[in-house]
Fold this protein.
Amino acid sequence: MPRRGMDRIDIGIERMITLFPIKEQCSFIRNDYQARGLKMLKKEQNDLLTQTGPGTPLGELFRRYWQPVMLSRELPGPGCEPVRVKLLSEQLLAIRDEEDNLGLIDEFCAHRGVSLWFGRYDEKGQGGGIRCPYHGWKYAADGQCLDVPSEAEDSGFRSRIKLTSYPLVERGGILWTYMGPPEHQPPLPEYEFAMVPDAQRFVSKRIQENNWLQALEGGIDSSHVSWLHRDSLKSDPLFKGAAGNQYNFKDLRPVFEVVDTDTGLLVGVRRNADDDTYYWRITPWLMPCFTMVPPRGDHPVHGHFWVPIDDESCWAWSFDYHAGRALTEGEVQAMEDGKGIHVRYVPGTFRPLQNKENDYLMDREAQKAGRTFSGIEGIGMQDASLQESMGPIQDRTKEHLTSTDNGIVKMRRALMKAVKALAEEGVAPPGTQPSAHHVRSAAVILPRDQHFKDAAAEALTAQPGRPHASV
């Protein structure tokens, strides 16, 4: 496995050059998209945007950001059971040893490759750590080998053994990691949902069995709401009753106006409100994989991270929070019951109870009767079922895009531009600093002669204690 740092980037570029030179891949940003408009990707572009393993250009970009790894409750206390983690195609082990040290290390012992998940925590000698049960090699939470029982103490052998390791830090009910070069590690993330008091936040995650990109693309595509989720807007307790819902039902031809920012995009979608105003729903996308759903009424605000497990699956992180008040018992219960953007699980796992093995418990009678437009219950699973139906990695060489896909086109372009800048010039990716995280989604009604970028600028900035702008 390539080590952290620039050597990994070099390896990634060499691999991609064998398919399609990196300069040619990213030059599409300037010419191919402009010349061809909203058209399909070429295979080499699709590969570039969907491969995130060690040494890949996009994988290097992802590794420059703090990523959510686990819910805090998965490592509840000192000496708790270690947890296997697969992230960006790396097989890792999360530990909280008996001295309360957190670590994310290579899952496999450097001796003969035994999984350290079978190991035991051991405080005896050289500090706390996890000991391989096969031959007793012991590792600290930072991956440093502390003991090789078969070797003499003064041999220095153990000091030369260190597993790949990454920091693991707790914030906002989540354990976060940074997998890039240590010298480029940014400060901890400051997304608003992670900074509010615990009583104002709910976080869940689920496995989604498709590439991260098609999940993200669903997250910034607001046009499908009037179709796929139209019945849920009327019945889901975390969506229904908002005055803004009526505009989703009345205007099925939304107009997209997408604004580039220094850290991603603002995807503005307007629908007719009355003769003089538009109803705007504004979704921020922050590189590489954060989106926030525009609010509805006084309901909690929703958002996602789409974090690659490997190239054919991802973690769909879902959060709800309210900046101005604690969540009610009813809201929390609804989230635990799989309402809103959350899901029900197969017991003891993070796999959705509705999954492709059981056809997502699709109900054709409910579909015919108009209780659910797709026959799938739950907003989260309505999205996941269709995104998984595209296959593990969508073949974007066959798609035919329209004007409502402009946000998706600009997102792809921004990712390729950032990959090019990092790989060829070493330019730090945009949006890694905490100041970039102080954004909000918004739902507003504006006069038709006002553009959301200026008229809603204040509403799109996090303001502690003040509720989101909502309709």
